[in-house]
Every structure is written in C-alpha cells, then in structure tokens.
Write a structure and sequence with these properties.
The protein is α/β, with parallel strands linked by helices. Helix 5 crosses helix 10, helix 6 runs antiparallel to helix 8 and helix 19 crosses helix 23. The longest helix is centred in the first third of the chain and has 19 residues. About 7% of the residues have low confidence.
Length: 607
C-alpha cells in the first residue's frame, strides 16, 4: 500500500494477486483467518464457493451480514470439523495454526487430491525461529505437498509499513480516542513497526507468497527438480544483484488473451512470469483486451485484427521503459530492441503456415488479402528481435522457410505430475460400459483448423465407441448419436481426471504449432490418432506409435477414410498401443520437463 492508495486500492492489489493462482471456477475455497476484505465478494462473483473461518466473533458476525451467500464459521483450523473437501485453502497472514506439521496434516485432510494451498505471510530467516521458511517448506514436503511457486514480496510490504506509521503520526489523537488506548501503547506500536521495517530491510524477515500442491506421495521429485526451491527457502530472498543496486529489472509479457486463461500460450507465459519472478524481476502482463479502449482513441480504430495485435502495444504502451519485452505471435510484434530494452518473440504457430495448409481443403476461407496481411504482420513480428523462440521444430522450420528467420527451439515445459495417478468418475457418471473404448476430442469446435466435423462423423461410423468432446460449444449433430458425450468449458484442473477415464485421443488438426492436447495425452499415457502436425509428429515418428499418424492430405473424405482406418487399427491392437504409450511416457517426461524448459529459457533470456 502506497501513500496515495486508498485502502480499497491496496486490498484490490492483494486480491488480484491471489487471482493469478486461483485458475478457473467453480472450485471450493477455504480461507483460514477470513477478514473484512474483498476476497469473498470477488470469489463469489467469479463462481467460487467461499468458506471463511476465524477465531474473531466480530469478524464472523459482520462477514455473515455482508456476504449472506458465503459460509463463515467461528473456529480455527485444528477445530474445524467438516465432510467438505476444498480445492484451495488460503492462508493470508494466518499460517500460525500450531505446528507446521499439524497445519499441513489438517490441510491435507481437507483438500481434494491435487488441491492447492496459497500462503501469503511473513517468515523468518533465523533457523531457530519457529516461523523459519526452510522449516515450513521441508515440513510441507514431508507431509506430501509440492512447492509449485514461491515469490518474495518484501519490497511491496515496506511502503505499507511506512503508510501505517504515517497514519499514526497524522491521526495519533483520534486513534487513541477511538480505540481507547494510551499514548504509551501507541508508542509501543510505532516502535514495533520501526523494528519490523528494520528486519525486513536487513532480510531477517521476508513477506512471501507460496503455492503448494497436495500430492499422493510423501516425497515428490518435483520438489527437488527445481533448484529455486532450496535456494529460496534457505536464503529467503533470491540474491539478485540488481536488487542490491536499488532497482529490480522489469519485464513486460504481451499476449492476445489474459494469463488467467488456461490455454497453451497463456500457460507458457505464466511459466515465464514465474521464472522471471524467481530471478528477482518485476513482471507485468498485458493482453489486447487491456488496451482496446486506449487504442480505439488512437490511430488503430477499425484496424484489421492481425494488424491491431501487431501494432497496438507498440502504439499505446510505454514498453521501452522495460528491460525485457516478450511478445507472442503477433501480439506486440511491432516492439523492437532498443539500447535499454531486449525484445524476445515467441512463435507458437505460423498463421501463414495454417493458411497455406487450409487453402487446399477450404478454398476461399482465407481471402488472398487476409493471407497477405497476416504474412506481413508475421514478418514484422518475427524480424528485428533480440531473440526468436519456436515452440517446436516444425515452427522453427516454418520461420526459416517463410521469413528467413533462424530461431531457438524451446519445446513447452509440461507439468507431468499434474496428470499422475488421477482417478476418474467418467464411466460411472455417464454409464459407459467397462469394456467399451472411449475416445476424446479436446479443444474448440473448429471444423477448419481442428477438423472437429470429421471426429463427429467417426462417432457415426463407430457406434460401439464412446466419443467425449471437451469443447467450447454444442454442435446440433451431437444429438443424433447416443455415443457422443459433450462436456463444455472444462476447467484445466479437472482435465487430468477427464483424460484418466478415456482410452485414446483424436486430433485431426490441419495445423498445430505445439498442441498441449497432444502433450496431455502423453502425460496420461494414452495413444493419440493424429495428423502429422505439431509436437505429436516429432514425438511419435520412429516409435511403435508412428502407425497412428496420418499424412496431411487436406481432402476431407481422405482424412475421414484414413482416420477410420487408424481407429480400426487401434481397436484391434489396443493393448500394444497402450503399452507403447506407457513406454513413451518416460522419454517424453524428460524431454518436455518444466525443469528442462526453465534451463533453456534462462539461457535465452539471459537471466
């Protein structure tokens, strides 16, 4: 909280920070130490179920009056008795629930499998202090929690402390009268604030945010795989040289869609933000929706979407004040390196490549002027950059072929542990016979790029197979087939359970730059029938799973015929392809690990 902020603005900053890690509703959230803040209101507005507990009767009474649709309980964590299982438990300055061991034991009993804990609290660097951070993290690991993310927020707490001291100095008499306390007590509070501020500046205390995730085992490799865990836990704050100079480096991430979404591009950029935070950087993220109003008042009014994506950020944002700008596809493409600012572009797929493929099958879908404009904006986006990253070898080859640009190939890092040992209720919920095969199509309903129409036709050709469509909208033809199951807008955290209930996947896309869908099937150890596109082509080639790949013949009839042949092949030899998928898992896990991705990105970004 800065001096010019209102309390409401400061509270909004904190709530917005938590929302970076809440992902999608619906989810059940338990807040330990609930207060008179904005969190219940914001969570319920977004579709979350809110339960708050506090030992303060007054807080509970007022909260119930303000938010009658939320649940508030007058209790502490260790006394909480409920059959409810929560997806997220938030400890906001309330991690003092007895011993760390009892805290995690109780939290573990209240969480769903894979459920997460979000902690924002003060920790000590003193090993003898009960609130030592390394002890907190180690206890979490022993009790079966993985540390997904940790960030030091101490620099943000110092202005807040100074503001409290300013309030006491300014309104000293009114405070003593209103609260009925003595002048000596006010002096004691002031002295404590001074001492606390001193300890933060000397790094004896740190204000820290952590995201921990419940796992099925007491020891999880992910805790050791990331070098930042032990170093941060041991030293409290990353020893960043820039910080010692008095200024953190700043990065700006530019995307088409907000990072709160769970698409592939947004997930990778959230990983980039986490990586930069771990190296002590300040990170801002902006999407095109953030600047629509600003841009509309300027020269971009009515501009084509591709050109808008490319030019808008450079036209209305002060991007040159940052040390690093990361653009994604066309978003921010017109930003270019300066003496101060490094600009790295990530290509997640080449539209010119999409257009080239699609035009063969669907003449006229992309008029010549649209393809030409896309080509121009992509050429701008991928030239004159400090570094160019392709998410697959296919994309790298296209960058070289279409634009003459060399790039670093950095395949997307993937959280394999998220898809491990997950139980599914899919068959029970939809009355699917135990012996039946179940296929899945995951992605937006797109007959052009995704060829979703062909998968619907396969449901007609194979009525003994159940076809799950995890997608964004309903196609009227679904109703014709009793073997089609439609599940709309599945939250990302629920996808592992969905995959765990199916036998194989169907991806007939005319183009994919990487394909998180493909990687999710690899993580779940299920085979995929796919056209030769994106990462699945590179991974399956030369393995026993190669026969499941389909050449990119763009004729609808030919793709349908070949896809039907692959389904028959898979059905007749399912145990073979299932075993091959399980054997591929270990190799893929090493190649596409988040650790390997972080190491490559660290080098390329020069962190």
């Amino acid at each position: 909280m800065n001096k010019d902020d209102t309390p409401e603005e400061a509270e909004k900053n904190v709530v917005d920070y938590f929302f970076r890690y809440l992902y999608k509703a619906p989810a059940k959230v338990l807040v330990v130490g609930t207060g008179l803040d904005l969190l219940p209101k914001r969570l319920m507005e977004k579709g979350f179920e809110y339960t708050g507990i506090s030992k303060d009767k007054t807080v509970i009474k007022k909260s119930k009056k303000r938010f009658p649709d939320a649940e508030f309980l007058h209790t502490d964590l260790k006394e909480l008795e409920t059959e409810m299982k929560y997806d997220i438990i938030i400890f906001r300055e309330s991690a003092d629930q007895g011993s760390f061991s009892s805290l995690f034991e109780k939290a573990g009993s209240l969480l769903t499998e894979g459920g997460r804990i979000l902690v924002m609290d003060t920790f000590s660097g003193n090993k003898q202090n009960p609130r030592n951070m390394k002890k907190f993290v180690n206890t979490a690991k022993k009790e079966g929690f993985a540390l997904n993310h940790v960030e030091d927020l101490s620099s943000l707490i110092l202005p807040d402390i100074e503001y409290k001291r300013y309030l006491i100095r300014t309104y000293r008499d009114r405070i003593t009268k209103k609260l009925g306390i003595t002048s000596e007590q006010i002096d004691e509070v002031t002295d404590r604030l001074k001492e606390t501020e001193k300890r933060f500046r000397n790094k004896k205390l740190s204000y820290v945010f952590m995201e921990l995730q419940k796992t099925e085992t007491k020891e999880r490799k992910a805790n050791e795989e990331s070098g930042m865990v032990e170093s941060l836990a041991a030293e409290m704050v990353p020893a960043i040289k820039e910080k010692e100079k008095g200024r953190k480096k700043r990065a700006l991430l530019l995307t088409l869609i907000p990072l709160t979404h769970v698409g592939g591009i947004e997930k990778i950029n959230q990983n980039i933000a986490d990586l930069l935070h771990d190296h002590g950087w300040e990170v801002d993220a902006r999407c095109t929706a953030d600047i629509q109003e600003e841009a509309l008042s300027k020269y971009l009014l009515g501009t084509d979407t591709a050109l808008f994506e490319c030019l808008a950020f450079a036209g209305v944002l002060d991007w040159k004040s940052y040390d690093l700008v990361v653009s994604n596809n066309n978003a921010g493409g017109a930003c270019h390196p300066t003496e101060k600012t490094k600009v790295v572009a990530i290509s997640h797929g080449i539209f010119s490549g999409v257009g080239k493929e699609v035009e063969h099958a669907f003449p006229g879908v992309f008029p010549p002027h649209v393809l030409s404009l896309k080509n121009i904006t992509e050429e701008i986006s991928y030239s004159n950059k400090s570094g160019l990253i392709a998410v697959s070898q296919q994309v790298s080859d296209e960058l070289l072929e279409l634009f003459g640009q060399k790039s670093h190939v950095v395949v997307n890092g993937f959280e394999f542990e998220r898809f491990r040992n997950v139980k599914s209720e899919l068959r029970e919920k939809y009355a699917i016979p135990k012996e039946a095969l179940v296929a899945i199509y995951a992605g937006r309903l797109d007959p052009v790029q995704k060829r979703s129409d062909i998968t619907i036709e396969l449901a007609r050709l194979f009525p003994d197979i159940y076809w799950v469509f995890a997608t964004d909208k309903v196609d009227p033809r679904y109703k014709q087939y009793k073997n089609i199951i439609v599940i709309l807008s599945v939250p990302y955290e629920e996808m592992p359970a969905l995959y765990a209930g199916v036998d194989f996947a169907m991806q007939l896309s005319s183009y994919e730059g990487f394909s998180n869908f493909a990687m999710e099937t690899i993580a779940t150890k299920i085979p995929m029938i796919s056209t030769k596109t994106g990462i699945i082509d590179e991974v399956y080639m030369g393995t026993p799973l190669e026969p499941l790949l389909i050449e990119q013949d763009m004729s609808h009839e030919v793709i349908l015929k070949r896809a039907a042949q692959k389904v028959t092949l898979l059905r007749e030899s399912y145990p073979f392809y299932k075993k091959a998928s399980e054997e591929l898992y270990e190799t893929a896990k090493e190649t596409f690990s988040l650790k390997a991705w972080r190491e490559k990105m660290t080098r390329i970004l020069g962190l």
